Amino acid sequence: MKMKEIEPEKRPREKMLEKGAKSLSNAELLAILLRTGTGGKNAMEMAEDILAAAGNRLSELSDFSLERMMETPGIGAYKAATVTAAMELGKRFVYEKSSGKKVSITDPKQIYEIMLPVMKGLSHEECWLIFLNRANFIIGKEQLSSGGMSATVLDIKIIIRKALEKKAHGIILVHNHPSGSPVPGSADIRQTANLKKAAETFEISLVDHVIIADDRYYSFANEEVRIA
């Protein structure tokens, strides 16, 4: 069925204009981005197909490459680019909003909430460094590495150099585990110990190392897994 054959009040765009964006389902919002259908399917049906390919999870869809998204029948480069751009804007908004709060870092959950928008749903590992001043306020963040499925290798010399350049009193290391388990491996434990020792030589405190696995995280400072 073509979109114009659907009752006006049930069409996603008209529904949003009348009731607001919050009244729409994920599929309806995607349908507005897609604008038109193709291959015998309307925009709503195509939106449902894209979501189904992502297990009906926006976190999975946000990690789709353009090529992966275009595997859905009827989704060409233009439609894939439009959806990908919307997903990236959503990530940046949440990250900007969470990281813009001027608060002293006193709990690993704060770091989890700040970094989750960046790391949620990733199929590869990323490692980030957060710089703190003497009052434990965040004065900067920087990605150290990206790639790989099961291991993050730290270059301790680079980390220390970056901390000195930022005049950081403390640092927090953050990386994700695509496996879904935040429990640190032997390499994580060894590298954390080495970094802590090296940082202390320059009177820099390794405040914590937080491992994120979507809805759970591990804090080296507290030595426990927490459910978000």
Mean pLDDT: 88
Total number of helices: 9
- In the sheet with the most strands, the strands line up as 2-1-3-4-5-6
Global structural class:
alpha+beta
Properties at a glance:
228 residues; alpha+beta; six-stranded mixed sheet; 9 helices; 18% strand
Question: Helices, strands, pairings?
Answer:
Blueprint: H1 12-19, H2 26-34, H3 43-53, H4 58-61, H5 66-69, H6 77-99, H7 108-119, E1 126-132, E2 138-146, H8 156-165, E3 170-176, H9 186-201, E4 205-213, E5 216-219, E6 224-227
Briefly, what is this?
The protein has nine helices and six strands. It has helices spanning 12-19, 26-34, 43-53, 58-61, 66-69, 77-99, 108-119, 156-165, 186-201; strands spanning 126-132, 138-146, 170-176, 205-213, 216-219, 224-227.
Can you characterise this structure?
- This protein has 228 residues and is of the alpha+beta class.
- The protein has helices spanning 12-19, 26-34, 43-53, 58-61, 66-69, 77-99, 108-119, 156-165, 186-201; strands spanning 126-132, 138-146, 170-176, 205-213, 216-219, 224-227.
- The chain starts with 11 loop residues before the first helix and ends with a strand.
- It has a 6-stranded mixed β-sheet with strand order 2-1-3-4-5-6, sandwiched between helices.
- The model has no long low-confidence stretch (mean pLDDT 88).
- β4 (205-213) and β5 (216-219) form a beta hairpin.
